[in-house]
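The following block was generated as part of the benchmark described in Methods. Ligand: magnesium ion.
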Amino acid sequence: MREVILIKDGELALKGLNRSVFEGKMTATIKRRLKECGAFTVTRSQSTVYIEPQDESFDFDSALDRVGRIFGIAGYSRAGVFDKDMDVILSEAPAYLESALCDKKTFKVEAKRADKKFPFTSPQICEQLGGKLLETFSHLKVNVHSPDIVITVEIREKGAYIRGNQLKGAGGLPTGTSGKAAVLISGGIDSPVAAYLMAKRGISLFAIHFASPPYTSVRAEEKVKTLLSRVARYSGPIKLAVVPFTEIQEEIGRHCPEDYFTLIMRRMMMRISSAVAAENGCIGLITGESLGQVASQTLPAIAATDGVSTLPVLRPLIGMDKEEIVAISRKIDAFETSILPYEDCCTVFTPRHPHTKPKDGQCEAAEKNLDIAPLIERAIEGIEYSFIE
Ligand code: ATP
Ligand code: MG
């Protein structure tokens, strides 16, 4: 007996005329992500996508794991494909469903008959297969209102597809349907979560990390790459720009008042990020800022850094508590890496009393002795690019 993976679209169904664009992006993502699982075809009929393996060697477990991390998918399941013959269904389906049914107490059968030539109606299919399952598995009872498992039979063009409960998909919108944006990624808990959340809304990601060797180590940079690889399991490959930031931080230390260090440093990050992001085809920036979390994340401080960005800044965590952020960080398997104790350039140069309520013009005054343009130019020249998969 053959098996397939059935995928149900999520919000895609709402997208009207853009629908075919969304569907195309999702199909392309499925093909790319499942490439290493073996040969398969992808077809679509209404809001169901069918992944059909071409031979025995197809790695189902790995494929299901990957499908669970593709955005735009509401639910998915593994299904058996049987001949469109009631006798075959009744004799073969119980054995196929055994592993799904063995730990369940109640079930019901639902039938959909896309092929109207099939000689039994949906209620007849439910009744006959339901009866057969009750007869085969004496521990089972029928519960039509809230069963532990729903067995679905779909009679389609190519065969009868039979499956148990659907697994919940990653949700969101297919990667790339919302354009490209650059995440400012540190080694902390927040920015990988911010990247994941924006990728979930269909953004394809580019990443920018500021490193200050020798104050920050190679291991800190490796940590950032590991975090991005966790996000990339959902978003697809991410191009990373590592920007040398040491000279800028030292110059800020030499020429600016100490209580403005963090603000000015963040303004420099924004200026450089806007330029690098635009050059790499991005139309927005993403940060892991959450209102009030630290001194540089008060509303006046955010206004002061926002003011120098030439691109819109997306801050998906702005209204979230740390607890909520940590829950997502754990879910995407980033948390254990994020809490490893490596230094970040932000923590190396921290003022004793950071300014939290800069007024109009104060940041400009504090950075007046900084030779901004050439500093930015040299930092951009020193960027090293890599690809994270
Ligand atoms: P995170 O947990 O993401 O490090 P945080 O709570 O430590 O965030 P900050 O250090 O104030 O907050 O940084 C705020 C945001 O600025 C980060 O979420 C990230 O988007 C960006 N950022 C901070 N440090 C860096 C860095 N070294 N390189 C790139 N972006 C950074
Ligand atoms: Mg940080």
